Amino acid sequence: MNAAKTQPLWLSPDDLGPEHHLGVCLSLGFEQQRFLLAPVEQTAHELAAGELLLAVLTDVAATDLRAPDPQRLLRDRLFVLRVRALQRLPDENAREAMTCRNLLQASLPQGVAWDSPEHVQGVLECDVLGSYSAPEPDQLRPVFSAHVTVGFPSSCLHLYWPSTSIMEMLVNGTLSQISQVELGVFRSGEDQGYRRAMHPARISMADIRGKRTAMFGKTRLGKSNVVKLVAQGMLDATVANPNVGQLIFDVNGEYANINPQDGDKALAQVYESRCISYFMTENRSDPNARLLRFNFYQRSDEALEVISEILSDDVTEGPELRNLFTCRLPKLVQLPLMNEIEFRRITRKWMLFWALLDSFGCEYNSERMKVWLLEKGMTNPFNPGFAQTTRSSAYMEVMNKPAPSIPFDFSSMMLEIRVVARFARMFRNDPSLNPHGQYIFDSDEAVMIDILCGNGHAIDLLRPCMPFHSPLAGNFTQEILVALDESKTVIVNFSSASEKLLRYFARSICTSLFHEQERKFVSNSLNNRFIQVYFEEAHNIFPPQGSPGLSIYSRFAKEGAKFNIGIVYCTQSPSTVNKDLLAQTENFFIGHLSCTSEAAYLSDVQVAFQSCEQHILHNRTQGYMLMLTYSHRYVVPVQAHFYSGEVRIRTDDSGKRVLLTEGA
Length: 664
What we know:
alpha/beta, Rossmann fold, disordered N terminus
């Protein structure tokens, strides 16, 4: 990696030598300027649409197209230009024709016609991006302004192509100095000319952290590769001060799995000690990976929602299970004003649901459940709390024997729940089930009893949920939040999950994450710690017209920055993403878009892309991106490096990394 420069980043006479001179200005403008190019013999640079050039004033008007004496240049400021188009010389009747004739005749050899096609290049039209002024006293960096002023003859302005040091200013001159990562090299277009003098194009991780970043472009053109470079850059930038946790929803398994396309250098393997991977299915290649599993017994208040996401819509909406998914289980918590009877009823409702889980094959761990229930404050953890008259009647009618002793483990509790449930289904009006004229089961419990005791087909329909349950699973959401708070990078691999299941897990985790960051904000305990969340297929998460079911993502977009939550989202088309989110996005990485309306839509929400629409539409090289970050003042085209696990963070002259510090 190149060391960071400590010399002032400004013009020197060597940067503006005759070999860099290209021509003289024909017409001035605040947004566009036109330059008459010097004859072919006087220039040594091949021009390309989209490349960055500079224009510098002299103290005397040009009388020909030769390079001015460097001592006559006014080096206190320069104009930054982007090449738009190369045009023919103006017609003789045009206002500029006489100026072109005079300048060319004074520059060409005797006897050569001023409009000779062998010698004359034409008129270059450029977009004005802004201007740089000389650094303030005791400062190393020049001052950029998006606004330019003109008050001089156009022939005083000369066009130059940049030297290496000036290219550094044009490409990276406005970039925050904190934690710069080399994303790629400057590349004005698809041609291979950039290889002759490749100049690094960097981003600052301070611009990414806690902000909104968009990746747009057609599939297979490098969006995910750039995401890997960004995520890796954040890991490298926080190695000395780990204050950024990252959450990556890995839709295709690109970040967690070893891939030949990445040179077997997956993010989770390169940064093994700082990454935690979750998988939907067992991953034998990564012994440290964790399975994304629910313990339906200990998270029964969420289980029905999870099960409804696992099963297909035709099953959840079918007659056998439709009523089950209208049931609600309250949290198993004894509130301060709740008496023992009320808490016992909630517990019994959970136990009835546990019997349903057991019926379609979900394993349980009796000892683990006992400890957990004791922690909940239950003195007799496996006692459903049925009245003795109810127990006696039920066992006698269903099993033709007296009621045994109070259940003492999970299996005896399951037996008692099933016996009383069958009794209730057969003898709905038995007095023991209606003490004081009130039925002991509510409507939700009645639905579960009907399925448990009378609908074997419904039980079979629930069996596909078994692989997503583990009796030893903890609360993976809390595990993830703890890992993020410890500045780990958590990769959730959804490569084997359905789109429906992916949406549920992502929404559930994001909701908990948002509320946790909100809690820290309210209690003033954020402590300059950040979370970055990476979303693939963002059109499913931030659609153009938001809906109540997706409100958590709307809050991410609108309030996330306040709670130190940054997001990186990828999709193919800008118009498929909520426009409010686009308008608030600070960082853009744009690949190929094939539709003029998409390019126009992007330009509408980010004016800096208005002069780049043709680039976006026509360039289709893999890894070619138009980049605009929070501290960039204009769009920079870049050929992104291919992710290989190589550290690309910038170092200073001593070789020390310039890292993301707490005060940055």
